[in-house]
Amino acid sequence: MTTLAYYLHNLNPVIVHLGPITPRWYGFAYLMGFLGAYLLLMKQARDGMLRLPLERVPDMVLNGCIFGVLIGGRVGYVLFYDLPNALHEGYTPLLWRFSSQFPYWGLLDVMNGGMSAHGGIVFTIITLMVFVWRYNVGLAKANPGVPLDSDPRLRKASLVNVGDACCMVVPIGLCFGRIANFINGELYGHASTLPWAVQFPSEIYAPTNGVMDPGVEAKLPGLLQHLHPFMNFDAALDIFSKDLQNHVPAAMEAVRTILPGRHPSQLYEGLLEGVLLFVICYTIGRLWRKDGMASGAFLTFYPVMRIIGEQFRVGDHAVVFAGMSAGVLYSLAMIIPALAYWTYWIRRNRRVPWVPQKPLRAGPPAGTPPPPRDPAGAVENPTPSA
């Protein structure tokens, strides 16, 4: 099979151009993940699986999305991936890279680098711990002297229960994120001759780890000489890269001749970390109604799925240990604590019945007549009797 038979990645990461506003599929994927998580968590609260009042679910989702996923994912990438890579390669890490131009700090420069799923997991756990603690403290202060377990709406929140509910929906966001990775043409896989292999033009202008494939690098000068015979290599490469990013047909057809087919590892990981992990965690959480079951399943199976997916993916980190990428190392570090956690909760006989709840109403429905007034209180200042 010739390389011309492979699918040439030609997806635009920008949804639509609205002047200076250019919404991207990557951000849209996060939005869809957050929305899906919110809807399912509300369902879990209504069903009684999530032991948290319905009106507090949006607070939990907002805290988890901002501090856990967005901030945690970015900080995790800077600490777990960029910092070791920078120290190994000798460039300035994003953590202490500052400039006089917006956004001023490398940590905030989200267009430079990406997000870390492992960082998002760690920070989400911390965020949920803080949320549950603040919720329980506020509940006790608002109801002094009242037994909090006497009313289902006054019971304390459980970190394990909240974690179970969140772990049942997190794979939705992971799936959308991997689809966005594919649309962006990033985190591509190893070379492959399979019929569904994909050619990624991003190898030219944004190669993984900044290192171009040796075979592509050897063919590139000849192609640029043919396309731009009167330019030096750097100038021709700059024009060619911009043409590829703008999906210029002539450039896209030309790059076909030098790119290898690659595993669409983003889609593999979307199926593993997204679809399959969701089926596992959601099924366990709904059928095995014990605290710790869904969260234990997620913490155990996520690193397994990640390790499998990493076998097809070009590592996005130059530092490796014993031939293993950083993603594999961090996943291996998760497995033993996750198994210990899951085993502990499996051995505990803690089955909590689901008590469906209904949302609180702020007042009577529209059109309801007011209740009759008490005759004794109808007159504010009654005339004293003679």
Tell me about this structure.
The protein is an all-alpha fold and 386 residues long. The chain folds into 2 domains: 22-193 and 265-347, no CATH class; 199-260, no CATH class. Helix content is 54%, strand content 1%. The chain has helices spanning 25-47, 57-89, 117-142, 159-167, 170-184, 202-205, 214-227, 233-245, 249-255, 265-287, 293-310, 326-347, and strands at 7-8, 198-199. Strands 1-2 form a two-stranded parallel ribbon. Helix 7 (214-227) crosses helix 8 (233-245) and helix 11 runs antiparallel to helix 12.
Q: What order do the strands of the largest sheet run in, or round the barrel if closed?
A: 1-2
User: Ranges with pLDDT <50 over ≥5 residues?
Assistant: 377-386
Counting structural domains, the number is 2
Number of helices: 12
* Global morphology: elongated
The biggest sheet amounts to: 2 strands, parallel
Question: Secondary-structure element order, as H and E?
Answer: EHHHHHEHHHHHHH
Backbone CA Rg: 27 Å
Number of β-strand runs:
2
* Estimated structural class: mainly alpha
Q: How does the SSE layout of this entry go?
A:
Blueprint: E1 7-8, H1 25-47, H2 57-89, H3 117-142, H4 159-167, H5 170-184, E2 198-199, H6 202-205, H7 214-227, H8 233-245, H9 249-255, H10 265-287, H11 293-310, H12 326-347
Parallel strand pairs: 1-2
Helix pairs in contact: 1-2, 1-5, 2-3, 4-11, 5-10, 7-8, 10-11, 11-12
